Every structure is written in C-alpha cells, then in structure tokens.
Amino acid sequence: MRAGSARGGQAGPPGDGRPEKADSAVVRDALGVGVAVGLSGFAFGVTSAGSGLSVLQTCALSLLVFTGASQFALVGAIAAGGNPLTAAAGAFFLGVRNSFYGLRLSQLLALPRVVRPFAAHWVIDETTAVSLAQPTRRSARIGFTVTGLTLYVLWNLTTLLGALGAEAIGDTDAWGLDAAGPAVFLALLAPMLRTSTERAVAGIAVVLGLGLLPVLPAGVPVLVAALAAPAVLYAEGRRAARRATGKNSQEDPRKADGRQGEGR
Asked: How many Å is the Cα radius of gyration of the chain?
C-alpha cells in the first residue's frame, strides 16, 4: 500500500549504461522514502486500537506482517464485524503482490542464500521502488537495506505510539480517528494510478466494494472487489485482439491482390 510503486523505477539490470550514483545520494533518497512512509504507521496504530485490537496485537501485526495495505484491510474488516478468517483472506490477497516483487528483486540484488529469508520480510512497495531505481547492484542493495531498515523501525515505533494514543483517547469514533486508516490508504494509492487501466480497476473495485457492502458480510466485499483486476485485464485483452484483427482486415488491397496473383 505504501507510497511508491514498483513500476516507478523500471530500471534496467545493473551495469545497463546509466551513470553511477554516489552512495550518499542513495542513502539520502532511501531515508526520505523510509521516513515519509514510516510515519504513517501512527494511523495504523490508531485504526487498529480503535477496531478493538489490543496494543500487543496491533504491534504484532506490524512486526510480523509489515505490509500496510494488508494490515489496514485486516483491522478494517474486523472493525466492521467481519469474520476473522474472511478478514485474513482479504489481507492475504493484498499481500500477494509482494511475492512478484520478490521474483524481480532476487535477480537484481542477488543476495546470499542465508540472507534471503530475512530480506524477504522487507520486500514491499517502497524497497522495490528504491531498489529498481538504482543503476548498479551495489546501489540497489544499499537502497533496499536503508529503506527497509528505516521503514521497519519507524513503522513499528509509530504503530506503538498510535495504539497507545488511541487507547488513552478512548472512543476513537468520537474524534473521527476511525477515518485515519482509509484516508492514509487512499492518499498513498492515488498517485500510483497512472494509466487508464489502473484507474478503471480502481473505479470498478470501488463500485463493487461500496455496492456490495450493505448486502454481504464484512470483509467479503473486499474479496469481490479484487475481481475488478482480472475483469479489466480480460476486457483490455479482447480490445487489443479486436484492434489487431481490424488492422489486418484493412491491409492494403494492392498487396493482397499481388499475393493472389502470385498464387495464380
């Protein structure tokens, strides 16, 4: 969920001809991303505690799950009275994207096997974006490490502060803090919707989620809304196929006549 899209840095492989980047510049950029996004953990802490989870449960989610969109989806469904299993399923599907990031980063970073299980916990939107934006393997490793470490520490620290603050405040609904999580989520998601396809997926998902909210159990509309992505991709594929067919049918008739003459 976090700010930064993996597509934002479609870098080539290390040594692809781009100029070298100083280590200090990589560290500066990575710290900027880690600090800016890590502070939003406060909103998660407030939202989670306001949903009825204890401070310990809230902190455990940030320590062990560490993928913001999934965490917000889980506590949001629980707050709405959804079944914990349904809530966990929605969170799982949101987190699946990190496995695809991992496939790309495993080639880019080429970390030792003993380190990979630990590094996998930091494979998220931001570390992927910073790593792919680097020109060399060395700078990609630095960017991944600094971003992951900064974000992990700050996200968990601000989660704790948010949970403790919400517990001290009491009824978060009375303060309007129940809207903090969705507001942060939308603010981070909006800049990532750059193409018409992405905007179409988001729009259909919103319509499905809000339309089914009154008639389905809490948490289920999120799962149904996920169908927007394959539906839009299928429609795009069909449209591309029709365009290709139309282009072939409008081929220069003189060329077609020439081929027919060759056949005769």
From this structure: 23
User: For the ranges 1-10, 88-97, 149-158, which has the lowest average pLDDT?
Assistant: 1-10
Q: How many CA atoms lie within 13 A of 77 on its CB side?
A: 25
DSSP string, the chain: --S--GGGG---STTSSPPP--HHHHHHHHHHHHHHHHTTHHHHHHHHHHTT--HHHHHHHHHHT--HHHHHHHHHHHHTT--HHHHHHHHHHHHTHHHHHHHHHHHHH---TTTHHHHGGG-SHHHHHHHHT-SSHHHHHHHHHHHHHHHHHHHHHHHHHHHHHHHHH--HHHHTGGGHHHHHHHHHHGGG--SHHHHHHHHHHHHHHHHHTTTS-TTHHHHHHTTHHHHHHHHHHHHHHHHHHHHHHTS-HHHHHHHHHHH-
Give the residue carrying structure tokens 């900064």: 150
Tens of pLDDT, residues 50-63? 888 899 999 999 99
10 Å CB burial of residue 15 (0-12, 13-18, 19+) is exposed
pTM for the full predicted model: 0.64
Q: What per-residue string of b and e applies to 200-219 under the rule 16 or more CB within 10 Å gives b? A: bbbebbeebbeebeeebebb
Q: What is the DSSP string of 81-112?
A: T--HHHHHHHHHHHHTHHHHHHHHHHHHH---
Of residues 192 and 81, more confidently modeled = 81
Cβ pair 205, 231 in contact under 8 A: no
